[in-house]
Specification:
The complex is a heterotrimer.
Chain A (H helix, E strand, L loop, with lengths): L2 H27 L3 H4 L1 H25 L7 H25 L15
Helix pairs in contact in A: 1-3, 3-4
Chain B lengths: L1 H4 L3 H15 L4 H18 L12 H27 L8 E6 L5 H13 L3 E6 L5 E6 L5 H19 L6
Antiparallel strand pairs in B: 1-3, 2-3
Helix pairs in contact in B: 2-3, 4-6, 5-6
Chain C lengths: L1 H25 L3 H26 L4 H25 L5
Helix pairs in contact in C: 1-2, 2-3
The chains are: A mainly alpha, B mainly alpha, C mainly alpha.
Chain lengths: 109, 166, 89
């Protein structure tokens, strides 16, 4: 494997896992449920997307021919993450979870 | 005639591509099997498939997708800064965004894009499908957020897909 | 280079998973816990992919895909249960 490709893979993996960490930190330290929802839906999805992209490059450089099937995992995550976030937000709205007082605008009943 | 034997051409192509990706090969046997599955499955499940409006401007669609991907990356940097920064600086808000899209598929696309891009998660849709409740992590200006969603995502989607605009 | 980067990434993912577990235990509400589990499975998926690179084998791809599918179905099922006390409507 050429050095530059290895460097690209390393950068993708590190950036990806750092983004996933940011998502987890957001989940851990933000004050209410609706703000916590932001970390996992965006940061974690992109983070894992980066890791999977790195893995795709790695396996493409290993064997003969490309290895594109990791794209499926990435595509699936990007399609499903908003859906599960939306469902959870609806459930939280229905349970009337508390929001921090600074929040402007009112959630629906 | 062609509609009878090939009810959803786009779905067929997608299924065949999915099969090839799953098997990670381009061997002729798998291409044949994938084509067969792509032809057979839509024929069997045809009545259950959600109608997808026709793409009117494919070139614009590609450009739109690229921009969305770029926005996702930018959004993540923004969210990362907010998450790691001091908690006091957040100004979350619930914002009501009026939508003009009727079609289910395009509406789903819009809500997904909103959830994936800058600091917003779509939380709920009103009964009459006219208003979307969006939670923003950091929205000092609600009006600007609504305007941005309208011009940046909703208008291109309406232009790309052939659907009624109310 | 990769032999140093992958353990580092796995350690980072481990920290992330720990934070998820803390949120899972702390709650305070049911949707919070479901969200923590949702994040947790996505992180586990990343660890599996990293492990696949570490061992240089393609075999873990199916496991990652299955975790993605099953995790999504699980999250949606629990969210629907929270919404109307029923999964199939």
């Amino acid at each position: 494997m050429p050095l530059w490709l290895e460097a690209v893979i390393c950068v993708l993996l590190v950036l990806g896992s750092l983004f996933a960490l940011v998502g987890a930190i957001g989940l851990y330290r933000l004050p209410d449920f609706f703000t916590r929802l932001h970390g996992p839906t965006k940061a974690t999805t992109l983070g894992v997307g980066g890791v999977v992209l790195g893995s795709m490059l790695f396996f493409s450089s290993q064997g003969e021919g490309g290895s594109l099937h990791e794209i499926l995992v990435m595509l699936f995550l990007f399609i499903t993450a908003p859906v599960s976030a939306h469902m959870l937000a609806k459930a939280a709205l229905q349970e009337r979870l508390p929001v921090i007082p600074k929040t402007r605008g009112k959630p629906w009943d | 005639m062609i509609r009878r034997w090939l009810p959803h051409p786009a779905l067929s192509v997608a299924l065949a591509g999915l099969w090839l990706l799953l098997n990670n090969t381009l061997a002729p046997g798998h291409v044949l099997l994938g084509a067969f599955l792509g032809w057979g499955i839509p024929l069997l499940v045809g009545p259950f498939v959600m109608p997808v409006p026709r793409v009117r401007r494919p070139l614009l669609l590609v450009r739109f997708l690229l921009r969305v991907i770029l926005d996702i990356v930018v959004a993540n940097l923004h969210v990362a800064r907010l998450v790691l920064g001091p908690k006091g600086r957040l100004s979350p808000a619930f914002v009501e965004v009026p939508v003009r899209i009727d079609d289910e598929f395009v509406l789903t696309a819009l809500t997904s894009i909103i959830s994936l891009t800058p600091g917003t998660v779509s939380a709920s849709l009103s009964e009459d499908r006219r208003t979307l409740l969006v939670h923003a992590l950091d929205a000092p200006d609600a009006e600007a957020l609504v305007a941005e969603i309208r011009t940046r995502y909703e208008t291109p989607l309406l232009e790309i897909f052939e659907c009624s605009n109310t | 280079m990769l032999e140093y980067v992958i353990p580092f990434c796995m350690a980072v993912m481990g920290v992330a998973a720990t934070l998820n577990v803390v949120r899972l235990i702390q709650g305070p509400s049911m949707p919070d816990r479901v969200l923590a589990l949702d994040t947790f499975y996505i992180n586990a998926l990343a660890v599996i992919v990293l492990f696949g690179i570490w061992l240089n084998t393609d075999l873990f791809f199916e496991a990652a895909l299955l975790i993605a599918v099953m995790g999504f179905v699980g999250t949606v099922a629990v969210a629907k249960h929270l919404l109307n006390g029923d999964i199939i409507d």
